[in-house]
Amino acid sequence: SKTQVGFIGLGNMGNPMAKNLIKHGYPVIATDVFPESCKELQELGAQILDSPADVADKADRIITMLPSSPNVIEVYTGPNGILKKVKKGSLLIDSSTIDPAVSKEMAVAAEKMGAVFMDAPVSGGVGAATSGKLTFMVGGVEEEFTAAKELLSCMGANVVYCGQVGTGQAAKICNNMLLAIGMIGTAETMNLGIRLGLDPKLLAKILNMSSGRCWSSDTYNPVPGVMEGVPSANNYQGGFGTTLMAKDLGLAQSTATNTKTPVPLGSVAHQIYRMMCARGYASKDFSSVFQFLREEEGQ
Ligand code: NAD
């Protein structure tokens, strides 16, 4: 039978991802700072422990799915962190979207303990996490990629090797900058069309058969009533939080600054998502930028 896999961070994404590992026959040992998020997994037979160190004491393959860089630093290098009790030869895979510089630091710290750290952020959202169809962008030593892929393919349809540690994050940050720009563009375009008297469903249909088509228009439309089964159909609950998108755009900005790369639309997108966080949209899905633009009207 398969040996146990550790999973740390059972939020919107981690919960369905860990469930897919269980479905594929891996016994899961998990932890989360928020006990409520462990309930569902415990009912499916996962063993729940108190800290990342306890998980590392039992499992030599661990996946982490945490909000942002400070949480990853704490879970790996904190007083009850993975590296306090990690076994030699362990494979540590971080699927959070964080600063690639932090991924590199974690890899160095893990190596000192005789373990291997890889970054493997995901694209796809909660729907893809649930159906096991995520895309994983993997950075780290190439010899470990096969071992990482064995686990990641239980949760994803695409597992892509990107290069040295941190390059998975680089690919993810680029994707999300384009996603944010595309979502704002879709929201303002749909709003203009509505103001010009077009039916939003018809406008979406036309965009989706024309050159303006993008993921935000055809798979995740931000206008309520255009599509079913997306956050805009459910008062922008669930999905990918505005705070997380603002974080990813901040990562894009700092990496762009460090490499002297001009990203003018990425900058504007970052400011818009930061304003939304300050105006009560923090925990709504990022497609609520449509609602935000409607509120700005007539001001
Ligand atoms: P989330 O906030 O729903 O879940 C994060 C979980 O980590 C929470 O349950 C939290 O309690 C736990 N946590 C935080 N600090 C911890 C600690 N010190 N020890 C143990 N557990 C801790 O976030 P999410 O939506 O699942 O996203 C996770 C990551 O995946 C983020 O980096 C995000 O940017 C990225 N991501 C999210 C989506 C999406 O659609 N939600 C899509 C792609 C990538």
TrEMBL record:
<keyword id="KW-0520">NAD</keyword>
<protein>
    <recommendedName>
        <fullName>3-hydroxyisobutyrate dehydrogenase</fullName>
        <ecNumber>1.1.1.31</ecNumber>
    </recommendedName>
</protein>
<keyword id="KW-0560">Oxidoreductase</keyword>
<keyword id="KW-0809">Transit peptide</keyword>
<dbReference type="GO" id="GO:0008442">
    <property type="term" value="F:3-hydroxyisobutyrate dehydrogenase activity"/>
</dbReference>
<dbReference type="GO" id="GO:0005739">
    <property type="term" value="C:mitochondrion"/>
</dbReference>
<dbReference type="GO" id="GO:0050661">
    <property type="term" value="F:NADP binding"/>
</dbReference>
<dbReference type="InterPro" id="IPR008927">
    <property type="entry name" value="6-PGluconate_DH-like_C_sf"/>
</dbReference>
<dbReference type="InterPro" id="IPR036291">
    <property type="entry name" value="NAD(P)-bd_dom_sf"/>
</dbReference>
<dbReference type="Pfam" id="PF03446">
    <property type="entry name" value="NAD_binding_2"/>
</dbReference>
<keyword id="KW-0101">Branched-chain amino acid catabolism</keyword>
<dbReference type="InterPro" id="IPR006115">
    <property type="entry name" value="6PGDH_NADP-bd"/>
</dbReference>
<keyword id="KW-0496">Mitochondrion</keyword>
<feature type="domain" description="6-phosphogluconate dehydrogenase NADP-binding">
    <location>
        <begin position="4"/>
        <end position="163"/>
    </location>
</feature>
<feature type="domain" description="3-hydroxyisobutyrate dehydrogenase-like NAD-binding">
    <location>
        <begin position="166"/>
        <end position="292"/>
    </location>
</feature>
<dbReference type="InterPro" id="IPR013328">
    <property type="entry name" value="6PGD_dom2"/>
</dbReference>
<dbReference type="Pfam" id="PF14833">
    <property type="entry name" value="NAD_binding_11"/>
</dbReference>
<comment type="pathway">
    <text>Amino-acid degradation; L-valine degradation.</text>
</comment>
<dbReference type="InterPro" id="IPR029154">
    <property type="entry name" value="HIBADH-like_NADP-bd"/>
</dbReference>
<feature type="active site">
    <location>
        <position position="172"/>
    </location>
</feature>
<dbReference type="GO" id="GO:0006574">
    <property type="term" value="P:L-valine catabolic process"/>
</dbReference>
<dbReference type="InterPro" id="IPR011548">
    <property type="entry name" value="HIBADH"/>
</dbReference>
<dbReference type="InterPro" id="IPR015815">
    <property type="entry name" value="HIBADH-related"/>
</dbReference>
<comment type="similarity">
    <text>Belongs to the HIBADH-related family. 3-hydroxyisobutyrate dehydrogenase subfamily.</text>
</comment>
<dbReference type="GO" id="GO:0051287">
    <property type="term" value="F:NAD binding"/>
</dbReference>
<dbReference type="InterPro" id="IPR002204">
    <property type="entry name" value="3-OH-isobutyrate_DH-rel_CS"/>
</dbReference>
